[in-house]
Amino acid sequence: MTEAINWQKSSFSGPDDNQSCIELAPVDGAIKMRESDDPDLVVTTSVAKLRAFILGVKAGEFDHLI
After folding, report:
1. Distance in angstroms between the alpha carbons of the first and the last residue of the chain
2. Is the pLDDT of residue 1 over 60?
3. Integer angstrom CA distances of residue 1 from 4, 33, 41
4. What is the phi/psi pair of residue 5, to 5°?
5. What is the 3-state secondary structure (H, E, C) of the chain?
């Protein structure tokens, strides 16, 4: 039997379940990501790669994209 994935979204996404956001879930030592409005499309990455990305976001490396 497959265990259910416990998806987590940012509190910055707001309380409305209809808002589009990125959801993350730890699965077997990896991190799965999906968009809430397209939950069938799932991307898997490593913890190290996600950590590097988050550090880049916090450092402002992607500010020009928004």
Report:
1. 41
2. no
3. 9, 22, 22
4. -85, 130
5. CCCCCCCEECHHHCCCCCCCCEEEEEECCEEEEEECCEEEEEEEEEHHHHHHHHHHHHCCCCHHHC
Q: φ and ψ at 2, to 5 degrees?
A: -85, 130
**Using one digit for the tens of pLDDT, what is the confidence trace for 20-63?**
789 999 999 999 999 988 999 999 999 999 999 999 999 999 99
Here the tokens at position 10 are: 């940012």
- What does the pLDDT read at residue 17? 62
Task: Determine contact, residues 35/22, Cβ cutoff 8 Å.
Answer: yes
